[in-house]
Amino acid sequence: MHIDLEVPPFRARAPWWGSHLQTLRNKLVRPAIQVPGHHERLRLPLADGSGDRLAAMLDMPAELDDGPLVVLIHGLSGSENSDYMRVSAAYHLRRRRRVLRLNLRGAGPSRASCDGQYHAGCAPDVRDALAALDADLVSRWLFLVGYSLGGNVVINLLAAHADGLDVRGAATVSAAIDPGQASRRLMEPINAIYHRRLLHDVKRECLAPSVKLHDAERQAIIDAPTIRAFDQVFTAPRNGFADVDDYYARTAGWRVAPEIRVPTLLIHARNDPWIPSDPYHALERAGSRNLRIILSRSGGHVGFHGRGHADTWHDRCVGAFLDRL
Q: Model confidence over 79-112: pLDDT tens digits?
């Protein structure tokens, strides 16, 4: 299904010029983000026999329209309380859409009810969680939005794990659709500050007191000097992959994105400091009638703080795409 979508080009809001300021803007400003409406905590069971349950925050607008349930899925070291999740939730709630902010396995509020940990290929977890929603919540349809690692999870879900779910559209923002390339980019010297912070945050998630680890696993996590090393000693073996290269290859969303059967919008900035745009160009060359790819010249990583609007440019693009559905 091809959907024509015209969106204005992204123009950075002063003084947030360049990839790094766009990426860091929310961390530097720390805006007070109010999520309107009524809120309910959900615990959604997984079907793998682990007993793990994903925590989600259901946000309901004061007045409800007949649109979909918008499901937001965070990125690496994120959660329902990440700034971009709260900003996007508020955007859709103001348009009278219901929103579900889903915490992946072991992330944020999910930590209390999970032994396992999310990763770039954890699409079956999301499928199970959405399948566990009450029927009245999914009585219309689902629209998924994934950010960074969460965007890659959405692509994997739509390509191979969405059977039985009434998902009629999706969008990704700054999705890490080639985890191997993203890992190499993140470890470049220019990204040392980002890399150090992300590595600290993912280690903190996995070393939480409630996580069941062998002594050798715990020490390997502590000693891992890079994100790639962390994935080699923990993420890959913990989740059944042969090694880090097997993990990156088997979870790469760009390989399976052409198989997606519902309209899907992919938004990415060419100057994203973390994630190369090469795999997006490869998807453009391959072509797919269900994929709409928007590659802006700038915007950073999950930034897109645009001139002339309080709402982020990526939220406005997603909103326009959703309206066309």
A: 999 999 999 999 999 999 999 999 999 999 999 9
Predicted TM-score (pTM) of this structure: 0.96
Q: What is the pLDDT of residues 38-90, one digit of tens each?
A: 999 999 999 999 999 999 999 999 888 888 999 999 999 999 999 999 999 99
Three-state DSSP class for residue 128: helix
Task: Decide if 322 contacts 169 (C-beta within 8 A).
Answer: yes
What Å distances lie between residue 74 and 93, 242, 250, 306, 323, CA to CA? 18, 26, 20, 21, 22
211 pLDDT higher than 70: yes
Q: Looking at residue 1, what is its pLDDT?
A: 59
Domain ranges of the chain: 18-181+252-324
- What number is the average pLDDT over the span 209-228? 93
User: Are 244 and 153 a contacting pair, CB within 8 Å?
Assistant: no
Closest-CA residue to 205 (of 129, 109, 127): 109
CATH number at 18-181+252-324 = 3.40.50.1820
What is the rounded distance in angstroms from the CA atom of residue 229 to the CA atom of residue 237?
A: 12
Q: Are 300 and 19 in contact (CB under 8 A)?
A: yes
Instruction: Show the tokens assigned to 207.
Output: 């070393």
Quick check: 177 and 267 in contact, CB under 8 A? Answer: no
Token pair of 82 as six digits? 């990440």
Phi, psi angles (nearest 5°) of residue 6: -105, 120
Residues listed for the chain: 325
Strand ranges for the chain from DSSP E: 38-45, 53-60, 69-73, 98-102, 142-147, 167-173, 264-269, 291-296
Of all residues in the chain, the percent with pLDDT exceeding 90 is 84
pLDDT of residue 264: 97
Instruction: Report the C-alpha gap between 301 and 248 in whole angstroms.
Output: 20
Token couple for 188: 């470049």
Burial class, 71, CB count within 10 angstroms (exposed 0-12 / middle 13-18 / buried 19+) = buried
